[in-house]
Every structure is written in structure tokens, then in C-alpha cells.
Amino acid sequence: MATTITITGAGGQIGYALLFRIAAGDMLGAGESVRLRLLEIPQGLKGAEGAALELQDGAFPLLEHVEVTDDPAVAFEGANHALLVGARPRGPGMERGDLLAANAGIFGPQGAAIAAHAASDVRVTVVGNPANTNALIAASSADGLPAERFTALTRLDENRARAQLAQTLDVPVAGIRRVPIWGNHSATQFPDVSHATVDGRPAADALAARVGDTTAWQEQTFIPRVAKRGAEIIEVRGSSSVASAASAAIDHVRDWVHGTDDWTSAGVVSHGEYGVPEGLICSFPVQSIDGGWRIVEGLELDAWARARVDASVAELIEERDAVRALGLL
Length: 329
What we know:
By secondary structure, this protein is α/β, with parallel strands linked by helices. It has helices spanning about 15-25, 45-60, 70-75, 95-115, 130-140, 155-170, 205-210, 215-225, 230-235, 245-260, 305-325; strands at about 5-10, 35-40, 65-70, 80-85, 125, 150, 175, 180, 190, 195-200, 200, 265-270, 280-290, 290-295.
């Protein structure tokens, strides 16, 4: 039986970049047939319908069916995976509270529709920003579904961090592991190299030999470059990250389904790990075991790293409280 995958904002650029790779089997594997449901707002339907025509012309052997709709009840019916890509971007003069309220009006109803119509095994990946808090809103609106089914995408940040570390050390990125993202998918995020390995060996000595003072390098070069990479791409390319965001979403879901052999990063619900308040959707180092994300516990954080994590978690708390103050949680 084919796996049903719902993609919101499917007529947008990230949605478009996702569709063909999913249809080709990059996300779930070459043996898994898929059915795609493309959800769009009415003014975005033409873009999604055009993508559906291209999917048909691609004659993908794994693609059984494509449906385009603006009705969440139809889009999420029987969904095994939901990739929530469409979100309200921050416009000129828009305050953060306005942005959170606008996105609550999107992700709250979507969470409710997922709870009402999706398959009992549904897994939800929130891509649209602010991803962590949007995931929290969706999870809070999904009565009867465990919060563990809702995740926020921070794999793009991890992929960026691994790539920057590989470039600094002049090694292939495939050999770089254990560079988790802590906290929020925002400028406060903490990409952590303290546990990084290169081909299975600790990276600390090699990194110190390259950059000297590793703390200064992290503060002045590495962390700002990772956190602001999206803005850098907009400046250079003239538009936001698309293919890399889609690729990270595929990485995230593939690992969620098929498991990991080492750490990765995901925004998942906290149960108090590392002092993060229970219920927040926070990025942690995680492993996927038996189809579920598990936070890697027991890692040491020195005072400098702890302060970085705490600052990002404080931002998540502020976002949660702002949404609560609006009566949306």
C-alpha cells in the first residue's frame, strides 16, 4: 500500500523542490510507492496544479497519485506524513507578535485537521518559520495526537554547520558527524562542535590546529555564518534557500522513518531534558530508533555552551508566551 504524503505550500519554491525528489524515492526509499496531496491557499492552486502536471509527465514509477486541494480535510485524509512548508513570512513593519498570530491562524487549523483526518501513524515535519513555535501551535491544536508526532526542521542548520566545519578542516563533509543544533531555528541557535568527529575521531585537535582559539572562531565566524546563512544566500542569490531546505526536509523524514546510526538534529518536544522546559519544541541532538526520535542525553555542556543553549531556549519561551498571551495555545 502506498504511503500518503501531504505537503502544504506545495505551489511554492520549497514545495516544488520537494515534490520530484519524493516522487523519485529519495525520501522513503526506492521500494516505497507514494501518493501526494498538495495543499495550497486558493491563490496558490495554479502553481500546485502546474507541479502536478509535471509530476505526471515525469512518469515516476513510485508515484501512484497526485491530488491538489485547498481543503485541509481533503489534504490530510489518511496522511502518513505531513510536511508543513507553507507559512506567513514576516512583512515590512510586522511585529513578531503579528507574525506569530498570523502563523497561528495557519498552523492551529492544520494541527486540528491532522488530528481529525490523518492516519494514526502520522509524522509531522514543520518547515515553515518560525518552525519551532509553529510546530508547538500545531501540536497543541491536534487533540488526541502525541506531541512527539510533531517536529521542527533544524536539519538544514546542521547540514550548514557540518559543511562549514568540513570546509574549515578541508575534509569531505561525509566524514563530519556529531554537530548538533540546540535551541531555536533562528539567529539564536547554537551549532555545537564540542562533540564533533571527523571519520570517527574527535575533531577538537584538528580544529584547534586550523583556527587556534576555537571559542573565538565559533563566536566570530562559525556560529554567525551558520545562523545567518539564509540571509547570505538571499543576498547572493536574490531569493531564499530552496533546494537546501528541501534536501534537509528529506534527510529529516528519511532518518525518522529508517533510523540513524549516529546523532542528528531535530526540533522535538522537551520532557525537561537539559533543563529545557517541558512542552517546548526545541532542537536537540537526537537519534531515530524504532521509528521515533530520542534525545541524546548525558552530554556535557561547559558554561559557555550552556549560556548559548539557555539564550536560545529563552527565545523559545518568549515565543510560546507571546502565543499564549494571544489566546492561541
